[in-house]
Amino acid sequence: MMEWWQSIILGIVEGITEFLPISSTGHLTVAEKLMGMPISDPTVTAYTAMIQVGAMIAAIVYFWSDIVRIVKAWFGGLRSAEGKADPDYRLGWAVIVGFAVTAVIALALKDLIEGPLRSLWFVVGGLLVWSVAMFLGDRVGKQERGEHSITIKDGAILGLIQSFALVPGVSRSGATITGALFLGIDRVTATRMSFFLGIPTLVAAGGLQAVQEASAIGAPGGVGWLATIIGTAISFVVAYASIAWLLKFVQSNNFTAFVIYRVLLGLLIAGLLLANVIAPV
User: Fold this and answer.
1) CB of 114 closer than 8 Å to CB of 259
2) Which terminus of the chain has fewer Cβ atoms in its 10 Å neighbourhood, N or C?
3) CA 255 and chain centroid, separation
4) 225: Cβ–Cβ under 8 A, 6 or more apart, which residues?
5) d(CA 98, CA 87)
6) pLDDT tens, position by position, 170-196
7) 148 DSSP assignment
8) How many Cβ atoms are within 10 Å of 250's Cβ, its own excluded?
């Protein structure tokens, strides 16, 4: 059984890191290991999947009006030629295509993701290598394009780039934001696109995983439903605040602070691994 304070800590970690470009997987893995939890244990895996649902719901609630607007425009475009001229119709298709590309790649690489890539050394590599990509995208990207310029081609490219987040440490939001910056999209729109693409991805992947592994929560020796409910609730509240903060932050700041943090975290994890404080798997 998980202690209540452990559940609160992990809920906070998930809520903060799920949508920031700093890798929630890396943070949760390290936090669980530092608390002596076996990260490959089915009960721990099930708990991690369940508290991600809290962050997923927070994103849906926060962007509900945008979701309704885009869905209406998409159906409107299917019904009439006039509707097809609506930028939100193209945005809807961009999200659908981007999600489909990511889903196909994720399914094709399922065994690899659940096997060798679970090593913390991959987290270190993902944090450090993608920090370089994020730094370059933030500096090289022209940032001339807004939300109404998004095309289906952009969606396909971002879906492909989002699949790099299958490597722990890269960060799903970090991947899509970086890709959008390289496409010339401005920081705010790039960040919003990371959410629009992330919502269906989290619903499909996180939701399915949570349903499949929910039985392990209440099993003998499992984490327990009380701890899971606490962690999920904390994750929802913290994730909602994190989304609001990030969108406000990128209006007047670049991503340098996140790049520096990612590099320092990667070096810290590498140091802990080399000192045998934590094991790679």
Assistant:
1) no
2) N
3) 16
4) 217, 218
5) 16
6) 999 999 999 999 999 999 999 999 999
7) G
8) 19
